[in-house]
Predict the structure.
Amino acid sequence: MAKTIHDTPMLDELEKGPWPSFISGFKRLRDEHPDERINAMAGDLLGQLEHSYETRKGYWKGGTVSVFGYGGGIIPRFSEVAAAFPESKEFHTLRVQPPAGNFYTTDMLNQLADSWEKHGSGLVTFHGQTGNIMFIGTTTENTQHFFDEINEYGWDLGGAGPCVRTAMSCVGAARCEQSCANENAIQRHLVNTFTDDVHRPALPYKFKFKVSGCPNDCVNSIERSDFAVIGTWADDMKVNQDAVKEFIEKKGRSYVIDNVITRCPTNAISLKDDDTIEVDNPNCVRCMHCLNVMPKALGPGDDKGVTVLIGGKRTLKIGDLMGTFIVPFMRLNTAEDYERIVEIASESIDFFAENALEHERTGEMIERIGLVNFLEGIGIDVDPNMVNSPRQSSYVRMDGWDEEAEKWFQRKLEEKAAG
Ligand code: SF4
């Protein structure tokens, strides 16, 4: 298989400048990789890309490519200019689910890279916007071979199309002191339960899970997932006054006032004359700012759990939506707790499957039908702690909500009376 070296004056421009260039990477595959098949594929890929730049047109078209037993997970790419660039005429992408928290061993990575160099182009993205490992560039035939091989040693395809998509969780407690939940366990519970819904696209549109261990929300779950699980705490923030004093000695009082105290969105934190910090916990909205600036002095409380939000996505047809609290706080300490979160997810997906219009995400569906109806549909009682934007818009304020608020007060009274 002979490689063709196409002239690429426009692409060459992209190698100039201070940043690593993907064009240099393609050229290394073309010129230095020991496998002639990969040299040829990369050569024609560069040729087609230059042609696209010249003509300002894309030449990849979709189609249907799948592996046995699966309805998704492959992004088919067939070239419309295959006659001129035959070696890259089929250049499909496989989405492969990463481990929770993206923890890999080098052995695993080497094994994956070896399989991909055997069956694909050698190009990989860790990780695509969807959270998947993207294996970019293989033929229809090799799609099956590559999948069979990696599946044999434990990897599975991710979601593509109208289905439950590949989930993501942050790196979590293993490397982060702010973690309030076992992110990786939550992700595994959700993914393992909905594997069939990942592989067989049967929903009105995509449905994404993302799990963040604390309100810093490093996987952007609040705006990038239909079902966001975010770690938080219910008791008081921990304050280590010795570490506060140490911090002040190093940085000065005015630094703390300018960078911590005055930046609190709810004025919930104050610095006393004796260089101690006081937190007005009921008014702290867990924005995480003060904890991030003073991680040794301030930390999440001991009563940890998660908040579940639904319907986030930017940008939707109706604009940007942040996730909406449907469970303000739940502890995840026992197997039953994990079962409960899976149950809420399952109810949400079933309701979405039955009630959403085609090409409508959960957030849009809820906007259309009303949150009360959605909550009723998934069997969750309305709670005034369900807020859209903290401190700005409690749902319980008008119209049908007054009735729901009344029910909530009634429930609380009954709970109190029952002891
Ligand atoms: Fe204020 Fe945010 Fe710190 Fe809470 S976490 S006290 S809201 S700065």
Q: What stands out?
A: The longest strand covers residues 227-233. The radius of gyration is 26 Å. The domain at 238-299 is CATH 3.30.70.20 (Alpha-Beta Plaits). The chain has three domains: 1-158, 168-233+305-418, 238-299.
